Amino acid sequence: MSDAREQAKSSTKITVYAALIGNVLVALTKIGAAVWTGSSAMTSEAVHSVVDTSNEGLLLYGYRRADRPANEAHPLGHGRELYFWSFIVALLIFALGSGVSFYQGVMHVLRPRPIDDPVVSYVVLGLSFIFEGVSWLIAWRRVRADGRKFGYYNAFVRSKDPPAFMVLLEDSAALIGIVIAAAATVAAVMFNQPAWDGVGSVLIGILLGITSIALARESKSLLIGEPADPELARSVVDLARRSPGVLRANGLLTVQLSPTEIVAALSIEFADDKRADEIEQLVVAIEHDIRKHHPEVAAIFIKPQTHTRYRHVRAERLGMSHRE
């Protein structure tokens, strides 16, 4: 694995560890405040932080599982385990974070209960905002380069490393949730309407639901197989096209196995005067050149094929896909 890949992976892990530490501190303070004040919004925030803490633990577990080497049962390695656990995290945010918060809020609206000692809530929410803010800043620094280059939404969609943006979105939702909880607490106390506390909890549940849907959508897309970055694909085709003995690089199929691993299948038309042993040597040379420039290509399969045959097979495959 190249230094750049190791550095990116280490940076993402640091982001997850920072989020884990921050969420543990936040969860403990929120749980204490929820028990002390009886606030529905604070209870929802406590549940939110507990879910986030377990999520970071699952992401780190996913990294450990994904690092296992290839074997006979999994010849391309276990990289997609990280995408599986990322999808589980998104489901947990929806089922536990969003579901519990929404239910808690509805029940509190139907049966309002005054907040005891709201000052405790303000202090805890302020400390939580600081803890979450530090974690958010670390996560933002991890993704800001891609965000500035492609725009943050496009960078999120293009990303092959879901934990990086997952932590950023979780922390963003947490900061917004803290603001909602604080506003709901102020409204409940100022207007002497405890139902506002429940409204805040419902809004936090909706916020977590939206966040979980966005994360689940992207994790699912990676789990079932996304192509590699288009720039990498173009580079691989160009490398093959410039190789001696190659008449044409017909096309390339890529699948992202993990944030740092890609499998590629390349169709190449070789010169007609090349014998089988010469083509074999050319294939080895092309594979070596591609891995030299793109070490993230964990496996590459090169198929000698005329351009006419390639177009025919591709048309058949696309036609079958459309019929399905």
Summarize the helices and strands and which ones pair or pack.
Elements: H1 3-37, H2 40-66, H3 81-110, H4 118-150, H5 152-158, H6 162-190, H7 195-224, H8 230-241, E1 246-258, E2 261-270, H9 276-293, E3 297-304, H10 307-323
Parallel strand pairs: 2-3
Antiparallel strand pairs: 1-2
Q: In what order do the strands lie side by side in the largest sheet? A: 1-2-3
| Number of individual domains | 2
Shape: elongated
Element pattern in H and E: HHHHHHHHEEHEH
**Strand fraction band?**
5-15%
The number of helical segments is 10
Mean pLDDT: 86
Helices and strands: which structural class?
Answer: mainly alpha
**Low-confidence blocks of residues:** none
Using the coordinates above, name the CATH class of the largest domain.
Mainly Alpha
- How far do the termini sit from each other? 39 Å
Tell me what the CATH architecture of the largest domain is: Up-down Bundle
